[in-house]
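Incident log, support desk, overnight shift.

02:14 A customer reports that sequence design results differ from what the structure should imply. Their input is reproduced verbatim below. On-call engineer (initials T.W.) acknowledged and began investigating.
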């Protein structure tokens, strides 16, 4: 196999870029982008735009028309070779007369997993793999986690002061982070399948946990509430008509409280295990069975600590505001975020003067 050229790399990078346009619209399917070139000229591109809709390759082939014959197709994920909500992409690629296919990464879905590449080669098409594979694997990380582990990709998000306080002292305002940081969080919420907090956060902040303005998805809101203490008059319960709410309770939760929450329109899921770690693993399996792809954990220090301890955090969003409450008389009463486990930093930005560090925890 010949080395990839600079143009090959540029074309695949374009496919990666356009794939991101489907974020929040295509899940539980993966983000996929495709570019078709003739010589060193891009003649068409496409991306998977919505769940149940045409795959990226089909969108690009339709845009290319007769220009696809003899052309090169760059695609970030191995073309599918099975009938799902749409026909196999491999058949369309062959029928269009594509001469060469460059695939960034294989599809781990059991009905594909190398079969798409094999089908194209069997049809006489030159297939090359591995170009920008790392970028393609990151692009589809949430999808791969769901397929391989049966649970959603977990993003841990928190905002804190420079001395790691999780809340502002009395009189310092409700928010630690800037309006720009909070706008980013709302945008993130709008792309999630579920958002989770602990009962401590639910009682202290009375949050809605909705995206404002709304995004492409309406996430399931989840409260970890071992004793079913969530008040019926809380904003979460009162807004169940606008967004679904699941209350995760433990084996000792009072039956009367469970019944009251259900009567108010909440879904109540009860674990038989008293172990917080077991409860988290059970809950994430439940979400995976429902094909929820992304879970945003916005809980306080205790909930985040439990997720980290259970090895269930896949991505970190850490907001640090340029304030310090160590000298405040009430500092000792403020909750403190522990240092997270070591992680690889992917991006650092400064929304509204805060510092946002995004990264991936080291995995054993």
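02:41 Re-run completed on a clean worker. Output:
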């Amino acid at each position: 196999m010949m080395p990839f050229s600079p143009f090959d790399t540029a074309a695949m990078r374009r496919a990666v870029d356009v794939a991101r346009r489907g974020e929040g619209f295509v899940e539980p399917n993966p983000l996929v982008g495709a570019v078709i070139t003739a010589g060193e000229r891009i003649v068409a591109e496409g991306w998977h735009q919505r769940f149940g809709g045409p795959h990226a390759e089909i969108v690009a082939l339709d845009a290319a028309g007769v220009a696809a014959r003899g052309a090169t197709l760059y695609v970030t994920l191995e073309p599918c070779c099975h009938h799902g909500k749409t026909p196999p992409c491999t058949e369309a690629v062959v029928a269009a007369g594509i001469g060469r296919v460059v695939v960034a990464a294989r599809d781990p879905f059991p009905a594909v997993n190398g079969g798409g590449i094999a089908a194209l080669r069997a049809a006489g098409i030159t297939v090359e793999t591995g170009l920008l594979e790392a970028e393609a694997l990151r692009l589809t990380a949430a999808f791969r986690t769901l397929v391989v582990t049966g649970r959603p990709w977990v993003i841990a998000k928190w905002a804190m002061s420079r001395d790691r306080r999780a809340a502002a002292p009395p009189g310092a305002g409700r928010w630690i982070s800037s309006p720009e940081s909070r706008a980013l969080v709302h945008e993130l919420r709008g792309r999630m399948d579920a958002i989770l907090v602990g009962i401590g956060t639910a009682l202290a902040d009375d949050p809605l946990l909705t995206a404002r303005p709304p995004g492409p998805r309406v996430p399931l809101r989840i409260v970890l509430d071992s004793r079913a203490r969530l008040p019926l008059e809380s904003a979460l319960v009162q807004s169940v008509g606008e967004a679904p709410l699941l209350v995760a309770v433990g084996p000792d939760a009072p039956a009367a409280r469970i019944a009251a929450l259900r009567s108010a329109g909440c879904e109540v899921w009860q674990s038989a295990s008293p172990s917080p770690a077991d409860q988290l693993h059970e809950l994430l399996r439940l979400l995976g069975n429902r094909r929820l792809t992304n879970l945003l954990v916005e809980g306080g220090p205790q909930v985040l600590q439990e997720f980290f301890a259970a090895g269930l955090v896949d991505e970190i969003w850490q907001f640090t505001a340029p304030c310090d409450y160590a000298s405040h008389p009430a500092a000792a009463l403020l909750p403190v975020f522990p240092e997270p486990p070591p992680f690889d930093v992917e991006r650092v930005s400064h929304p509204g003067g805060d510092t946002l560090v995004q990264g991936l925890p080291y995995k054993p």
